[in-house]
């Protein structure tokens, strides 16, 4: 990966995005595909900010990781619904196809993959979204050999994109569900070591609790701690 | 920008005038956000250095820093990820005291704050002087936890909280502004929450 000092800041501006499709794969997940005006290219791992505006100009905004590849004509965001979530609740309950949202992106130039460096992802729950974007980009470029993904969820209901991840060859580990001959539990160092072998950058994404668990697991599987890039998110609604 | 169909203000107004635009009150929670693996630094191994454009580059060990006058900040903090937290209490030392010992040269106008992890963030010198910045090791009456930057972090509460570098180890005084970690990654050079300076390109 390029050194952080090589990164050139790029300005982003607020624009508008129109909801083209809206799906709710599970009660607490909302998948939005947006047509974004004046769109800038993104790298897998980056996120967008969505801002809602009330008639009195009150605003609320949240960041969502992008699941889509940069060549996808639409920007795909996965929103986790939180109880009383101000933004996620609106996107889940009120927003409809055709609605126009304020959006800004891509944001974040640290937690992103250049699609050239051998990489491993250890991601949990809705933290799988940036890994989905990385897998889609790797597939488009014909470089799936560069990327290994381990995705962790409570059970299939709580792991977005579980089927797509499995099809792409990811290790899918459920902590409360036995599946495909794998007994429930977090990934072991034995499971992770072959995925981590040769990786020059490691991506960890999930809740603070997941990150606290995942980072030592990767280090235990032989990953150099200085190559680990972390994206944490909290229940901010 | 367009009004979002069907979206209305639901939250109660925060205590008058305390919530910068686009922020919400996180209440009792204190979210943790970091970009790197959390380091384990023992107080005995921690130190703070002020160098660069100063007359007297100086390093304080944990014990030496604790012998400086104790300083407390009570008030609000604002994270660029849109949460704000009211009425926090931090204790440590004032950056003014560190600078008074190191004596900035006249040409020093900016600070690059360094963490022992390699994290950096840039600030105008005037944003860390005049009782507006601290190095703190206590939050809410308890030792600052590792995930919140313990044993000690920078505290610049009038700017977005990524400026308050965790695991602070060095304040480097510079004549020219030099972007830090998030600033090179698209975030704003100053980060004033009241002017909503979140990203590069914000006024």
From TrEMBL, chain A:
Provide the coiled-coil residue spans: none
The name on file for this protein is FAD-binding oxidoreductase
The record places domain FAD-binding FR-type at 12-113
Which organism does this sequence originate in? Nocardioides oceani
Cofactor(s) the protein needs:
FAD
**Short name of any one Pfam family annotated for the protein:** FAD_binding_6
Q: Does the keyword Iron apply?
A: yes
Q: What PANTHER family does the database record attribute to this sequence?
A: NADH OXIDOREDUCTASE HCR, PROTEIN RFBI
Keywords of the record: 2Fe-2S, Iron, Iron-sulfur, Metal-binding
Automatic annotation (TrEMBL), chain B:
Q: Which InterPro entries match?
A: OxRdtase_Mopterin-bd_dom (IPR000572), OxRdtase_Mopterin-bd_sf (IPR036374)
- SUPFAM superfamilies registered for this protein in UniProt: Oxidoreductase molybdopterin-binding domain
Where are the annotated segments for Disordered? 1-29
Pfam families referenced in this protein's UniProt entry, alphabetically = Oxidored_molyb (PF00174)
Report the residue ranges that make up the Oxidoreductase molybdopterin-binding domain in this protein.
Answer: 37-182
Coiled-coil residue windows: none
Can you name this protein?
Sulfite oxidase-like oxidoreductase
Annotated source species: Nocardioides oceani
């Amino acid at each position: 990966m390029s050194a952080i000092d090589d990164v050139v800041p790029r300005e982003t501006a607020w624009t508008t995005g129109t909801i083209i499709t809206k799906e709710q794969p599970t009660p607490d997940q909302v998948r939005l595909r947006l047509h974004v005006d004046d769109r800038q290219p993104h790298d897998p791992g980056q996120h967008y900010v969505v801002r809602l505006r009330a008639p009195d100009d009150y605003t609320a905004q949240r960041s969502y990781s992008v699941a889509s590849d940069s060549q996808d004509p639409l920007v795909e965001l996965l929103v986790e619904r939180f109880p009383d979530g101000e933004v996620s609740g609106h996107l889940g309950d009120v927003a409809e196809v055709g609605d126009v949202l304020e959006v800004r992106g891509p944001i974040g130039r640290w937690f992103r993959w250049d699609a050239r460096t051998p990489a491993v992802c250890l991601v949990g729950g809705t933290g799988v979204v940036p890994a989905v974007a990385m897998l889609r980009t790797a597939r488009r470029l014909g470089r799936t050999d560069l990327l290994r993904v381990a995705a962790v969820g409570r059970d299939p209901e709580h792991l977005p994109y579980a089927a797509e991840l499995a099809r792409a060859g990811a290790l899918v580990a459920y902590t409360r569900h036995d599946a495909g001959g794998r007994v429930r539990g977090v990934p072991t160092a034995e499971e992770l070591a072959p995925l981590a072998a040769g990786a020059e950058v490691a991506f960890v994404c999930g809740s603070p609790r997941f990150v606290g668990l995942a980072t030592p697991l990767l280090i235990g599987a032989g990953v150099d701690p200085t190559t680990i890039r972390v994206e944490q998110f909290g229940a901010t609604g | 920008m367009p009004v979002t169909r069907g979206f209305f203000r639901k939250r109660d107004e925060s205590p008058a005038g305390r919530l910068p635009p686009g922020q919400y009150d996180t209440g009792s929670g204190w979210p943790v956000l970091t970009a790197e693996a959390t380091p384990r630094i023992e107080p005995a191994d921690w130190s703070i250095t002020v160098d660069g454009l100063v007359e007297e580059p100086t390093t304080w060990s944990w014990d030496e820093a604790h012998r400086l006058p104790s300083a407390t900040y009570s008030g609000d903090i604002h994270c660029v990820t849109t949460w704000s937290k009211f009425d926090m209490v931090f204790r440590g030392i004032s950056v003014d005291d560190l600078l008074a010992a190191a004596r900035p040269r006249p040409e020093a106008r900016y600070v690059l704050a360094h963490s022992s992890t390699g994290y950096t963030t840039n600030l105008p010198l005037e944003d860390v002087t005049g009782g507006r910045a601290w190095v703190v090791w206590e939050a809410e009456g308890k030792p600052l936890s590792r995930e919140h930057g313990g044993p000690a972090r920078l505290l610049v509460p009038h700017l977005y909280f990524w400026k308050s570098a965790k695991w602070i180890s060095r304040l480097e005084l510079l004549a020219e502004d030099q972007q830090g970690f998030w600033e090179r990654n698209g975030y704003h050079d100053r980060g004033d929450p009241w002017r909503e300076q979140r990203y590069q390109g914000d006024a």
